[in-house]
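re: the backbone from monday

yeah here it is again, tokenized this time
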């Protein structure tokens, strides 16, 4: 019996640990449309239900995921020009001179004294270049990850004026998101290695007396067409794929001074204790602990931003 979703096909292994963002929401107000952090783990909280469900106004329990925020700096901009078929090709990068020396940035961009020397065309698309210093989290990973973030605004001039305010400065999560806001979490799922059809697709087990085998597909297809279709479940690599979870509500944006309120007894498995700024999301997100997660302002949600009322945060041991 054919089982398993064909929604994500083909199952490609991710090429790098930095998740790619294929589309960004449009925003008229100048703002950063994304950010990045490191997944910590999960716990549960109790909050006042502010939805329109039958439990409205009562206390409910929800699973939550914590994301720790490293030190993120804005070190430059990238300009895209619009092509003949509405396709944007990168053609110029500009790095701030002070940040190049401070962060030891190497690349093909032009080094400028300040953003005042950048002169974009009105139809250009302006993206902010950011650097996440993961070594500031003390989790054993000393990599520095560079990524780009889209900017809201009417035109390139307005977007560049917004970037000038944060050029060469550290960006905080509170500068971009608000508690109660919905975001999209983009990450790479947990790799599970080589898997058979039972685990990979949920194929029904066969009766042993049929073929003396149980954990395989009964048939690879009909005689005609005389080939194996791509829809036939077969063994292969499982996990470590790009995945996007949409509409994850931010329940709390905490500072380093509030880390003790979310640290569980004995630390989070495979991670440890939270020591820096953090974001608490409702529900689960892809990937294991210590994996990079990119947060994007919700592409589809139109819900109003309502600040959640947290009553209790579980700090019981997860060991």
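seq for it, each position gets an aa:
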């Amino acid at each position: 019996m054919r089982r398993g979703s064909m929604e994500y096909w083909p199952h490609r292994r991710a090429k790098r640990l930095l998740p790619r963002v294929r589309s960004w929401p449009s925003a008229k107000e100048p703002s950063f449309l994304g950010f990045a952090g490191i997944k910590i783990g999960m716990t549960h909280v109790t909050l006042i239900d502010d939805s329109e469900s039958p439990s409205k106004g009562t206390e409910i329990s929800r699973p939550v995921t914590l994301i720790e925020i490293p030190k993120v700096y804005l070190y430059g901009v990238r300009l895209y020009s619009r092509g003949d078929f509405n396709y944007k090709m990168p053609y110029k990068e500009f790095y701030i001179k002070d940040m190049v020396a401070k962060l030891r940035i190497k690349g093909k961009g032009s080094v400028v004294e300040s953003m005042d020397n950048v002169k974009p065309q009105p139809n250009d698309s302006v993206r902010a270049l950011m650097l996440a210093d993961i070594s500031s989290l003390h989790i054993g990973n000393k990599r520095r990850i560079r990524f780009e973030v889209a900017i809201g605004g009417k035109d390139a001039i307005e977007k560049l004026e917004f970037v000038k305010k944060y050029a060469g400065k550290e960006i905080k999560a509170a500068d971009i998101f608000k508690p109660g806001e919905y975001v999209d979490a983009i990450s790479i799922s947990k790799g599970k290695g080589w898997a058979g059809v039972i685990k990979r697709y949920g194929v029904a087990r066969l009766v042993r007396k049929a073929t003396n085998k149980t954990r395989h597909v009964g048939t690879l297809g009909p005689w005609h067409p005389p080939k194996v279709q791509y829809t036939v479940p077969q063994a292969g690599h499982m996990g470590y794929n790009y995945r996007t979870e949409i509409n994850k509500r931010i329940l709390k944006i905490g500072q380093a001074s509030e880390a003790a309120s979310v640290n569980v007894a004995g630390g989070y498995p495979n991670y440890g204790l939270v020591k820096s700024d953090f974001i608490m999301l409702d529900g689960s997100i892809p990937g294991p602990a210590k994996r990079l997660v990119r947060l994007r302002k919700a592409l589809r949600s139109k819900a109003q931003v309502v600040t959640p009322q947290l009553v209790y945060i579980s700090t019981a041991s997860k060991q």
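The CA atoms of residues 99 and 105 lie 7 Å apart. The mean pLDDT is 90.
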